[in-house]
Amino acid sequence: MSFLVDYHMHTTFSDGADTYPAYLEKARKKDLAEIGFTDHITLNPVEWSVQEIDYPVLKENLKSLCNNFSADVQVRFGIEVDYFEGRELEIKQLISYFPADYVIGSVHFLGEWNFDSDKSLYGKWTNDALYKMYFEQVQNAAKSGLFDVIGHFDLIKKFRCWPENDQTHLYEETLRVLKEADVVMELNTSGIDRPCGEFFPNKKILEMAAKIGVPITLGSDAHHPEQVARHFDTAVELLKEVGYTRITRFKNRQRGEISL
Ligand SMILES: [Zn+2]
Ligand SMILES: [Zn+2]
Predict the structure, then answer these.
(1) Which of 66, 152, 239, 253 is deepest in the core (most CB within 10 A)?
(2) What is the pLDDT of residues 26-58, one digit of tens each?
(3) pLDDT tens per residue across span 198-212
(4) For the domain 5-259, what is the CATH code?
(5) Where are any strands of DSSP class E within the chain?
(6) What is the pTM of this model?
(7) DSSP summary character for residue 73
(8) Could you tell me which of 44, 45, 33, 41 has the C-alpha nearest to residue 4?
(9) CA 211–ligand 1 middle distance (angstroms)
(10) Mean of the pLDDT values across residues 172-191?
(11) What's the CA-to-centroid distance between 194 and ligand 2, angstroms?
């Protein structure tokens, strides 16, 4: 698998369990070509994000890791940044501080509710209503022009929040927005290990994405070195099956391609 990339992982700078060398070591064992570290950067003060006081250290450490790549695995400077509607200028400013190779835009909040870690408000709306609210934010994130990649496309299903009615139209509409905005989607393999038990996004959505021509990249969302490149064999098989022949790679916020 020496051509593959894993573009989504978290270290102790945010909510991950270990530091850069441990993830690198695992990436070497998995024979990856590139990995990207994407610790959480968010405007909302939360404990699972990089604290502002640590920004300079992260910047310096990761930049030097990117510059001193070993011959086997190259390191990319990524960040996973929360999207908040109406705060685009602040987000832009935040992103500009980091010499990123790529920026993942993620929706973890609906209003002030961090639905990704706080289960208390599920049931307050119908699941269909939640899907509508969530995908509206994903569409806005894609249209904002702030991000290179949209993270975990259908994260709203994480805790088995399944829609009451078929949402194909909503997925398709959102994928068309990604295509129009020229934003890459990630196949985030962490979903299989979550209560929802399937990739973000699932096969049906991937099929639509391939047909519409939304570019794709690959991320494990590892929060522990053991999770680097998790389920990547299945993921690559699935990507080929739905019609993808290439995945996207990044450097300096410019894109390249890797043939599958
Ligand atoms: Zn995330
Ligand atoms: Zn993540």
Answers:
(1) 152
(2) 999 999 999 999 999 999 989 999 999 999 999
(3) 999 999 999 999 999
(4) 3.20.20.140
(5) 5-6, 34-37, 40-41, 74-82, 102-106, 149-150, 184-188, 216-219, 246-251, 254-259
(6) 0.97
(7) -
(8) 33
(9) 25
(10) 98
(11) 13
Give the mean pLDDT of the chain. Answer: 96
For the chain, domain boundaries: 5-259
The mean pLDDT value for 84-98 works out to 98
167 CA from centroid of ligand 2 (Å): 24
77 Cα–ligand 2 center, Å: 14
Secondary element (H or E) of residue 89: helix 88-96
Which residues make up the environment of ion ligand 1, defined by Cβ < 5 Å?
106, 151
Give the pLDDT of residue 1. Answer: 53
Tokens of 150: 């949209």
Tokens read off for 214: 């939304």
Can you tell me which residue has the tokens 């995945």? Answer: 247
Which ligand gives the minimal distance to the CA of 158?
1
3-state secondary structure 163-207: CCCCCHHHHHHHHHHHHHHCCEEEEEHHHHHCCCCCCECCHHHHH
